[in-house]
Amino acid sequence: MTLVKTFKTFFLATVLATLSSPLWAIGGSNSTLSGLQQPAFLPVEQAYQVDLELVERSDETVVLAAHWQIQPGYYLYQKQFSLAADNTFAKLTFAPGEELWDEFFQAQLVVYRSTTTVYAELPLSQFAENTTLTLRSQGCADAGLCYPPRDQWFAVDLERGLFTPLQQPRETRAESTAVAPLSLSLLLTMLLAAAVGGAILNLMPCVFPILSIKLLSLTQHATSRHPTWLHGLIYSAGVIFSFVAIAALMLALRGAGEAIGWGFQLQSPLFIAALAALFVLMACNLFGLYQFSLGAPTATPAPTLSGAFANGVLATIVASPCTAPFMGSALGFAITQSSAIALLIFAALGAGMALPFFLLTLSPRLAAALPKPGAWMEQFKQLLGFPLLLTAVWLLWVFAGQTSIDQLALLLIALILLALTSWSWGLLQRQRSSAKIALLLVSLLATGAATQQALHQQQKVNWQPYSPVLLEKLRLEQRQVLVNLTADWCVTCLVNERRALSGETFSQLLEETQTVYIKGDWSEPDPEITALLNAHGRSGVPLYLLYRPGAGQAEFLPQLLSPAAVADALKLN
Question: Quick one: 187 and 160 in the same domain?
Answer without folding.
Answer: no
